[in-house]
Amino acid sequence: MAKSKFEYVRSFETDDTCLRNCYIVVRLDGRNFHKFAEQHQFAKPNDDRALGLMSRSARSVMEELEDIIISYGQSDEFSFVFKKTSTWFKRRASKLMTHVASQFSSSYVFYWKEFFGEQPLLYPPGFDGRVVLYPTNRNLRDYLSWRQADCHINNLYNTVFWTLVQKGGLTTTQAEDRLKGTLASDKNEILFSEFDINYNNESALHRKGTALIWEKRDETVSKRMKLPNEEEREVPVTRSRRKVEAYHCDIIGDQFWEEHPDILEDDNC
Amino acid sequence: MAKSKFEYVRSFETDDTCLRNCYIVVRLDGRNFHKFAEQHQFAKPNDDRALGLMSRSARSVMEELEDIIISYGQSDEFSFVFKKTSTWFKRRASKLMTHVASQFSSSYVFYWKEFFGEQPLLYPPGFDGRVVLYPTNRNLRDYLSWRQADCHINNLYNTVFWTLVQKGGLTTTQAEDRLKGTLASDKNEILFSEFDINYNNESALHRKGTALIWEKRDETVSKRMKLPNEEEREVPVTRSRRKVEAYHCDIIGDQFWEEHPDILEDDNC
Amino acid sequence: MAKSKFEYVRSFETDDTCLRNCYIVVRLDGRNFHKFAEQHQFAKPNDDRALGLMSRSARSVMEELEDIIISYGQSDEFSFVFKKTSTWFKRRASKLMTHVASQFSSSYVFYWKEFFGEQPLLYPPGFDGRVVLYPTNRNLRDYLSWRQADCHINNLYNTVFWTLVQKGGLTTTQAEDRLKGTLASDKNEILFSEFDINYNNESALHRKGTALIWEKRDETVSKRMKLPNEEEREVPVTRSRRKVEAYHCDIIGDQFWEEHPDILEDDNC
Amino acid sequence: MAKSKFEYVRSFETDDTCLRNCYIVVRLDGRNFHKFAEQHQFAKPNDDRALGLMSRSARSVMEELEDIIISYGQSDEFSFVFKKTSTWFKRRASKLMTHVASQFSSSYVFYWKEFFGEQPLLYPPGFDGRVVLYPTNRNLRDYLSWRQADCHINNLYNTVFWTLVQKGGLTTTQAEDRLKGTLASDKNEILFSEFDINYNNESALHRKGTALIWEKRDETVSKRMKLPNEEEREVPVTRSRRKVEAYHCDIIGDQFWEEHPDILEDDNC
């Protein structure tokens, strides 16, 4: 096909290939989700419909970009980890992060109804993203731990804050003042002694966020077959399928990683 | 708020600030839109509902990111141009392109119904994006000219191809063979002599694509006011509002730019 | 030639091509030149041998990398400007800056004797460098103005400081205290009223630094030739040669640029 | 100190920090060293003076930039490896590579006389450089293996080629033709059967290149001291000093790395 004399402008594009043999993390953050949550009457401190929609959208991203080995989300953010050896989009950072941002955002609107039913979505929401590289398993696990620690810190705060407001009858300003300077132990104590709430019994989804990983599941399906010397009939067939599974557990300690040894690759390669 | 020991992982983020005093172009391209178009029965060679939805989504991006001075789209792609002096997201390339990709994609699903009515969207579509910098007006205009020349080349081809198939009764393979090696003039001639079609009278939307720019419009609204020594009453008030306007015209030549002298900034700054 | 299985490591190299149509500036700065100056007994506040050697080395760089259109130096730094359209090293930033740093440094040692005679160079000096891009003539001129303004500020300070010490008999600490908080006008006044020195009559080399540019010079050389119907004889031949010329003048105002209209390229390309 | 209005140009600098927790390799290559070698009558196929000068310059770089854990050179190239945790120059790629290029180049001229005696250096030589990051020990070792395999391939070729010319009486063109398409085994065979040369007995410096590493050495120096109740006298004092040591051995296999376990850092950090 004929090329135009304007073609030279292509040479202004720069190469942003991600360094090889590193985990590629794409993190998305909701834009102005404070306002978005208010306008859509999200429950406080956590709205399970909203969290479910975030996970559903993340699952849609993972099913589309198969080199993602784990994703982790909490609140209005989600992180996606591409395997070290991924050659998706030739490892071009811009392609990777825009495709993730795009697929997540279209899914968020597409699946809205599944989680919010007849409550209408008032306007199309926005997310922004970034790419970060991690050379070792330690660095990657520390990244995920950082996000889960953030989840914990925020959720503990929000749980006490909204309990003080919703059950304790404080204004938001009063609750804020009450919590100024308190430690985690102070917050646990307020919940326990004043409201008879054991924070550790609160929903794991809220306390730990959501980790999505691929798991192989054996599935038995029945298939119409004609075996030799027989009539055609339904035969049960077992096949292995990769499926995205959700976990709301601690991913900071070793247990989760020991139980799922296939997620991370060997460091010494 | 307490910081975790994992905080150090933040230092792995790299800075991708766009060079100052350059136009920042974000271009989005549909992912697997060939298949998407088929599955949603897009009309051939152009589906006005789909083109309308692309423009509607682009408008949504422009209204959200006000530093975009012009955007141009055709087929399943759209380019967004940020002004040279933009400091949106501190000019961080990753933030700019992911936000554009996200806002465009969520809008595409959100506004689907406005253009496709009861025809359902079967799955959430994906777009990928990239960032390119252009230092001068000449370079930027050549970029936009490149995209419009691409629109012209593709649309002329597709118009003849589908006319041969739809009106000429050729198979797609026959149409392909027929067009192999033909020049633009040959294609125009086939349309004219065999089908009595003057390509230049075809829809400008299809031939030229869509340029979206900001325009100031004077608007007269009536406002209830109380003027001195008068009863309160409705008073007509004129105010200037910036609005996104669509053009389907040539943007390669000088005329468009002379008629809209405010789009580009001075080169000599 | 046989390729080894280790060859894959090449793919870890990243592309650092400089954005097209921008001026590429490489600036070098002496490493620990304070100590270097002391150990080699540089005269205070300016050592003409050292400044001459810097310029000689810069000239060597320009003669080696012909796309440099202007270079500017002062104290222990030198900036080199590549033309917008340069394709030297395919515009790879790393190659450009390392070659400049290397050529400058080897020249500094190579030409040492020309400027310092029998005084020995005690150890090989080091310079570090960086690359900065400027899209417009205004930006580039402002960059060069920034460096010349820096030269002015430092040289005025150093001139007064060392005059107070060398002619005024102050200790360095006393001189420092004396100058704390003084404006340019105060410093000029100290020089004039106390030491009868008009700063503007000081050496232009010290006040303005050194700009090196290419100039065409007509040269008459005599060549042995045999013209038709004549004996072979010496004939004067004029030829034009590009030569690096040094200027110690203001480059902040317009005059220098008007007198050398060929240095900068047109902005509107 | 007063800031000028031109200061804004600093914001055009971009950040080129190297990804953390990766080895940083700076490789230098001689510019036009084929011509340089000819003009300075380098012996063929290897000039020990030139190789010695390269190593001496590399040593000078290592002594200046202490975070370099190993450097490896052959022919007119030298690679420098910074430790993963280095924060030298805040890991800014441009600073690291220009400083290495500068220090190496000034040292090359500075130490010329030590290796070439009265043979004059005709002009200042140039080197260019690049930066490459390697996330794991495997990747880094494969990089160094790649360079040593390159040394082997080139040196075997050059050894046979120049033997054919110098002892075999072939022209360079004849030698070239003779070697076209030959394998390593063929080349070894030519050397052995025709010239009675066992390639493996050739100089290790030529076959293996030069690896420079830091080693701790105990040194006994005598120091004048006054011990309690004694006259002042010379006392032998043992102290540990880090010194750059040269190796001309295989660095592809495991032995070298097992014998020097301190060079590489742990992968799992």
TrEMBL record, chains A, B, C, D:
Domain Thg1 C-terminal, first and last residues per copy: 138-253
Q: Provide any one GO MF term from the record.
A: magnesium ion binding
Q: Where does Mg(2+) 2 bind?
A: 29, 76
Which cofactors does the annotated protein need, by name? Mg(2+)
Spans traversing the lipid bilayer: none
- Which superkingdom does the taxonomy of this entry point to? Eukaryota
Extract the coiled-coil ranges from the record. Answer: none
Name the chemical reaction catalysed here.
a 5'-end ribonucleotide-tRNA(His) + GTP + ATP + H2O = a 5'-end phospho-guanosine-ribonucleotide-tRNA(His) + AMP + 2 diphosphate + H(+)
Q: Name one Pfam family in it.
A: Thg1C
Q: Which GO terms describe its biological process?
A: tRNA modification
Positions binding Mg(2+) 1 in this chain are 29-30, 76
Binding locations of GTP: 29-34, 75-76
Q: Quote the cofactor binding remark.
A: Binds 2 magnesium ions per subunit.
- Could you confirm whether the keyword Metal-binding appears in this record? yes
The alphabetized UniProt keywords are: GTP-binding, Magnesium, Metal-binding, Nucleotide-binding, Nucleotidyltransferase, Transferase, tRNA processing
Name all tRNAHis guanylyltransferase catalytic domain ranges: 6-135
Assigned EC number: 2.7.7.79
- Kindly state the subunit structure of this protein: Homotetramer. Interacts with MFN1 and MFN2; functions as a guanyl-nucleotide exchange factor/GEF for MFN2 and also probably MFN1.
Q: What does this protein do?
A: Adds a GMP to the 5'-end of tRNA(His) after transcription and RNase P cleavage. This step is essential for proper recognition of the tRNA and for the fidelity of protein synthesis. Also functions as a guanyl-nucleotide exchange factor/GEF for the MFN1 and MFN2 mitofusins thereby regulating mitochondrial fusion. By regulating both mitochondrial dynamics and bioenergetic function, it contributes to cell survival following oxidative stress.
Assigned protein family: Belongs to the tRNA(His) guanylyltransferase family.
Name under which the protein is recorded = tRNA(His) guanylyltransferase
